[in-house]
Structures
1.
Amino acid sequence: MLLLGDARQVHLRRWAAYFVQRGYAVLTVSLEPGDGFPSPFQRIQIPGFLPDALRYPLAALSLRRIARRFAPRVTSAHFVPNYGLMAVLTGTRRWVLSTWGSDVMTDPGKSPFHRARAQAVLLRAPFITSDAVVMTERIRSFGVPAERILTFPYGVDPALFHAAAAPPAGGPRILTNRKLESLYQVETVIDAFAAVREALPDATLTVAGDGEAREALARRAARSPAASGITFVGAVDHARMPQLLRDHHVYVSTSPHDTTSVSLLEAMASGLFPVVTDIPANREWIEDGANGRIVAAGEATRLAVALIDAWRDTALRARAAATNQEIIRLRGTWDEAMRPAGELFDAMCDRSDP
């Protein structure tokens, strides 16, 4: 397998490890650094001052040479506008495109060029993986037949992500761990926390992650009357995420656009109470008032009310924790969720055509 994607992303590392364990000889190729990658790794060096719209097409020339030497039986390309485009330009025939979310849900809406590029890649991929029904519907809107789309979530490892033997003391300890970028609207939870802290003086908010909006969010938090309860911990390595989750009671995601969020599934597996935005992907996993709370995106006041009410309803949180761990067991574990992908790649490798 030739694996193409951003080597800094934990999902690509998990993908590489899965297929190595499945018996594949995996070569990962990326324009981004991949220290300690779980498979043989080769980085394509393209000047960073070039815009991405040029960097990735230029990298296809090097990728073509790598592919000739490696002679992969199958190629797995992740993220539409860069590595998906590279797979198209390389001329590979037996390949699978994996969509990750914004590459299908938001990026095509930036301009006619972005839409045309996404559609060209999607229509040329023999098969496409999607992690949510809402994303599958979006892919089909580009004219891709349903039989070429495989829908499954990127699940969690229950050996790593599980509830603590006893919940942390005090609280509520609230965690948001999405990227600190405008797409995720983390400012909503920062604004909501002021009201939460007024009603629940022992409340704390941990903001994990990094991104272009970090400085602006830190300044916003510093101006909050609840500033003393807000902590920015920066990017957290995936190996440390299980313990970070178990150190908290409530998980919050304020993104107005999303597919199946692995961070949500990890929080559910870890016993945290989810409070998330009212979008289709979240409704695939959370029923408001049953196993979490759903709040309209951008509504800081309503988010604050949901957080306060959830903390005061001990019985609801206990029921939600049990329900969510059962949901993860039934349809959210990594090995079981990846089984359809493994079977698809096995079948493609077994074909006799070159």
2.
Amino acid sequence: MIIIAISLFMICPILLTGCGSSRKPPETAAPLPAPIVLLSPGDTIEIKFPYAEQFNETQTIRPDGKISLPLVGELQAAGKTPSDLQEQLIQVHSAHLQHPELAVIVRTQYERKVYVGGAVNQPGLIDMPGKLTALEAIMEAGGFDLTTAAVDSVILIRYNNGNTQSHQLKLEPAIEGIEHAPVYLEPRDVVFVPRTTIVEVGQWVQQHIYDLLPIGRLGFGYTLN
């Protein structure tokens, strides 16, 4: 028993720090900016004219990113914020209406989903009909797997203009009820909950040491806590 214990520490002298794993979590980045809602193909919008209700429209943005309106024809909608589209519509309708005031209301967004994976109970795609924080998304995924989840090292992966950004989130204050700034998600974000270091160490020892030792023949075993 003593010999095996010594061998373990000789093989893995930094056992308590992760067996020298080269994988490092992303450095904590600056606070994430508030998410920007951009319109996409498949989104449904309502356009309301308070002084010309006969022109009210409900449109689903076409695959080419455009909508078609009676007075002004086709316009690009995808890739714009609702407020940007509203300003453009007011401008182009000013030549046709005495009071071109209007409102753009987003009814549904086709691509408003995020993926939650890792040490959660029900990993998968999560719908986000409105604002959604990282912690709320994890709860929608069945919550943390409390036996393995590294609650204070959650990773947020965000795709922005063809680039990938990774941020480390510390969610322990939120779970403990301490005041904190919530992290709001954007469509197609990935929230990954890693496993704790000690669990990874246990798996490493199980695979690389324990399975190689003749424990059964010697008549004893060991347990990692």
3.
Amino acid sequence: MKYRWLLLACFAFTGLAVAQPQDWTMFRGTPSMVGLGGMLPKAPKLLWTHEAGSGIVSTAAIAGDTVYVGTQDGKLLALKLADGKPRWIFTAGNPISSSPCVVSNAVFFGDEDGNVYAISRANGKPLWKFRAGEKIISSPTPAPGVILIGSYDNYLYCLYAGTGKVKWKFKADAQVHCSPCVAGGVVMIAGCDGKVRAIDLQTGKQRSAAEIEGNLAAAPACADGVAYVGSLLGDYLAVRAKDGKVLWKIEQGEEGGACYAAAAVTGDAAIFASRAEKVMCLARSNGKTRWTFRMKGASDSSPVISGGTVYVGSDDGVLYGLDVKTGKKVWQFTAGAEIKASPAIAHGRLVIGSGDGAIYCFGK
């Protein structure tokens, strides 16, 4: 079956030149992974809670009037954005840490048994399945006609979106845990092999690579040809895509300060969350610290910016809203368990899941 793949209208590859999406169709909102969401009310109110019955680490996708989210007991849920009631449930049977990606009439995601699925957006029926060699934590990223996703078999796969067949695959030197970033005609991955790579979107050939001390698991966020990413040593970096040059590297040197979360990028700010129990805002121009906010737990949740507020979850069970300019707390919500998923923001709503299986929706 053939599909007409209607990708994002503003699929500009200049990072911050991309308009904020009305929908939130994938991890980080857009292929550049910069984490810019739509507008929310100043003090979002809890509108509904859906009890999924299993832990959530997958970030939700919001497309039209439906929320899509994966669970640790292997289910992909399609919920009504208005009230959280189920539209349909697809059972993969293996944990889903991968965040769903919605393109036209299909929902794509991976599971921890190494399967990549395309599911009908209308009714939850399978369209195709691709089998990788190892588990998948990476979330799929769309590009015209294809889906890109990493696997623990060391490969980055470029799959035809209509069939699931391989267009090309790139072999890294270790697992591809991160979600791929697409910007400027390249796919960028930050790998468990300690390299930040830029790979040609059309051919799958490497254009550049920066070798970093310490491995990487976070998705790179790319703006204006520069990728911003944190390492498992707790360092923060800016890497130029065209030649792999490290423009700056901030060494934190904190025990247990690994960064699994993707950065949120806006203006001259790159905002990181880490297992060092803090959120940091660094200047994109030189890496200097603008502010630091201390939490009471580690964070694998990738920050998302909505207007003048950045939202981020923590293992302390709190969803924080911080002022982008100052880092001061302006809002918070206490959930019943740790929050490892990242916020999804669209249509005036924020949706996020927690470790006890509760899915929360906030808005006006």
